[in-house]
Write a structure and sequence with these properties.
This protein is mainly alpha-helical and 266 residues long. The chain contains nine helices and no strands. The chain is elongated. The protein starts with a helix and ends in a 7-residue tail after the last helix.
Length: 266
Amino acid sequence: MNIFLGLFKNHNSSILVPRDAEIASPQGENGHRSKRRQAETILTNVAHISAPFLTVFIIVHLSAPALANVGGSSLSSNVMLLGREYYQSAFGERYLLFAPLAAHVASSIAKRIITPSSSSPRKITSSLSLAAYSTLLIFLPIHFFTHRVSPANPSPPIFAVGPSELDYEFVKTGLARFPCRSWVLYGGLVVSVMIHAVEGAQIIQASRFASRNFRMRSRTRKVVAGVAMVPILAGLWTVSKEPLMVFASLAERYEAAFTRSWVYRF
């Protein structure tokens, strides 16, 4: 009996609270935090490394409407067709656009999920996050379906608009037939992308390069994003003021491609 009672008095060998359990709990918690920090570092690297690929695509893609200020929709169409050699080839689209986009989105969302809200570097209502989610959930899906998926539909009356036919006359038709919706969707996409790009560039610059002390204020970043938007939106305005230079039959196919999206039906 004395031996049995001694087990409760000896804390080193107690059957109620083993010493290993007392030690394991803090160690397990620290190990969990360490693994989470490692995962956050990996996800951050994936998001940062994929960003330059998306930046190149944005520059190539948005240079077309910006150049309409110089040469109208004709120059925009030529620049867009040249740009497709980069981002719509069998290799380029898969590995230089879709793969970096998927990696950027997945890593950012995964990091948001595993990072505790108390230690999250930015709120979900920040300019960076709001611009990202509005692009990902609203503007980008509609833009991709309207300008890529729908025109490729082989059924009548679209009859699969070919790449050589899908130039800035398609954009011009959308602006002429559905002016309010087109301006909201084009403008929203440009604004969201530019705000996210400028905010993200500041984060990458501060964390990756030596000049970490150089930080733009929030207002300055918004001004920079606004300045970048001006030539793009001005180019779209220039395109919208031009007369349609397309056969009526092709314009009908364009309009049918737009109306396959629910946004352009009501």
